[in-house]
Please model this.
Amino acid sequence: MRGIRDSPAAATLTYADGVFLRNGRPHRVLAGSLHYFRVHPGQWADRLGRLAALGLNTVDTYVPWNFHERAAGDTRFDGPRDLARFARLAQEEGLDVIVRPGPYICAEWDNGGLPAWLTGTAGMRLRTSHGPFLEALDRWFDELIPRVADLQAGRGGPVAAVQIENEYGSYGDDQAYVRHVRDALVERGITELLYTADGPTPLMQDGGTLPGELAAATFGSRPGQAAALLRSRRSGEPFLCAEFWNGWFDHWGEKHHVRSAESAAETVGGILDEAGSVSLYMAHGGTNFGLWAGANHDGGGIQPTVTSYDSDAPIAENGALTPKFFALREKLTALDGAGAKRPLPADPPLLAPRELPVTQNAALLDGLRAAAEPVHAPLPLSFEELSLTSGLVLYEAEPLLPPGNHELTVTGLHDRAQVFVDGTPVAVLDRESGSFSVAGTGVRVRLTLLVENQGRINYGPLLGQGKGILGGVWVDRRQVHGWTIRPLPLDEWTWSQTSRAGAAAPPDGRTGFATATLTVDEPADAFVALPGFGKGFLWVNGTLLGRYWHIGPQTTLYLPGPLLNPGANTLTVLELEHLGDRITLHNRPDLGPPEEYVETFD
Model:
């Protein structure tokens, strides 16, 4: 429906003869990714100022559908979801804005940004021209895109470009779907530059690009090869690296991925030498607060993403300026026509290191039982059947175990279960080890499975996969029926709910709830560690900061100063494995042992 769109001359960003033009003048897009949903709103202005000081003229951000519409029909754009406020703050810093509305964003974000209520719908065919998916997409875009359109440069705002879908060529080749996304943007008022972004291979570019729309590439190395590929296919289009991976994300149980400042600066130099434009992914990574971290699957098992999204970015998780910041700044500000270097902001203040003694509260199972009303069902219900996006589910049944040893098997476990028999821990199961031996004496036992959703898969063919117990539970060949089920949406709990669960029962000294008090005169950032603890969740004044896990790589959680109040602050822990006796504050992060990583598409 190209006739609906205004002429290209109406757009702020256009191109001719392989060169970007901004309001008709030659221009390079020097952008950096900074996700408003990974930064406390009280720090948006600070982080945008640091991005501008890096030498960039543009900020780009995804828009995660599930962050704005967690429950079907309840769409929100307030507080941390106030995209318009974020964009206006960018404009005050003199930055253009690129919006990447998906509907799929990947981004190591839970479910790739797609709502669980949508992906859990029976028969749903994601990211295709399947009618029910397009209908849901259109309803979401009815809410989102007019807001983006009102922020366009042509209407006095900062938005200069909008991305069509996201790296679709790495997923499929349903061109009717990609065209539908493009047309949905245009029909709802987008008149600024549209573009697609895909990996730098013919396969990916074939699947994700559209005739008549700018084709960009995403990569971490070999800019000359990427430029040659795009120019061979799209004569006259400017070379745009829509994501330059100057760092990488981390999974639990692996090492902390880093990329040297020298390596990142060299590749950025290569992009610029090709007369290219670039967006640094990430310029500032931020944090997967709450339970928003996604997961990958390598074919053998799930790989949950850690709470930190520092990504070894030039602007660190707490806003500090890194050696990579200065190396990239030299490259960016050395360009002909680049603006004068902006003054460098000081690193944000940090609380002084200290130790906080911990008070143990309710034991794990008793506290969780008190936290939710039970649901009764003959078979285990999935997260989706319970209308639960993330968190935990407590499954309990009372099977009769004949005398002797029996094989207890859980099928379709997504993702991890701690198993108790009569309150005693007997096994920890994951998706790849779903069986254990249990002894029976001819009486009924209380079988308890505490199942954790470790993050919905955000990339690849398993996108949208369900959570919980998707099969069943067997004692030898006999299936277990008669379940009492308690859904536990930890990231939706209010402070009063968390406190009530912690006060519901006495401690047992092993696992469960615990609290500590942090008293400050003036709030500031901190890095929080939990030595001696195993695996669990940390709240600060009722806000779920995220997960921690002793297997690393990260051993500290970033605590933004805006979450603290002058005076006493409460830190609440839900520990699944073994409690420690103190919480410690540090003035630097510990993200784990480093491992150099550069994506090459080999």
Q: What stands out?
A: The chain has a mean pLDDT of 96. The chain is about 20% helix and 30% strand.
